[in-house]
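hey m, so remember when u said the tokens were messed up on ur end? i reran from scratch. heres the input so u can diff it against urs
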Amino acid sequence: MAIEIPFVASAFFLLGIERILYGFWSIYPETFKAEVRKGTFGQSIKKEPLYWKSAMTLGKYVKVFQFSAVLYDIFVRCDLVNTIQVDVPHLVLGLGLIAAGQALNIAVFKAIGCIGVYYGNEFGYPVKMVSCFPYNVSWISDPQYWGVVMTVWGIYIALGVTSYVIPVYETIWYVASMKFLEHERGRILVRGILGADIKYAKK
């Protein structure tokens, strides 16, 4: 199946919006808080007193871009309805990846809660340190992000979709988040180039 260049370009951008946003408030948490109070992200988010909840709401909004790219790719570009090729081995493998990915995602939320997932620590809220599953598994770093990657790959494999552009893009963006955008090396480099976080004074 030929790859349409416009979709490939737009999909990479759309899938990156979420990761860039997460990188922004990871590297510049005080700037993010200041922008929230200024109403940059809308009045409903401005009225939210908890910054981690503001981040959670924004995270839900940008998921629209992610889901839209995936759904368009599967049902329109790949024409799943007319080209579906589900077979038992791929179905079992795909469902296994989805189950494992969602298990990791659920376990992360159970372990650190929404406040931990949505950067409560970076925004100045107390977040408990945990050593339970999945954080006691030494060979898997960033379990929630790997859970998302596994889920996306699982969906494509289970449905027999033969184009893996979106799963590859998702993998690239999430690895970029884990290794740079939300990593200390990213903070050091970006702050070195763009400057430190702005000073934020509580009103």
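this time it looks ok to me. The chain has a mean pLDDT of 89. if urs says something different then somethings off w ur setup not the seq
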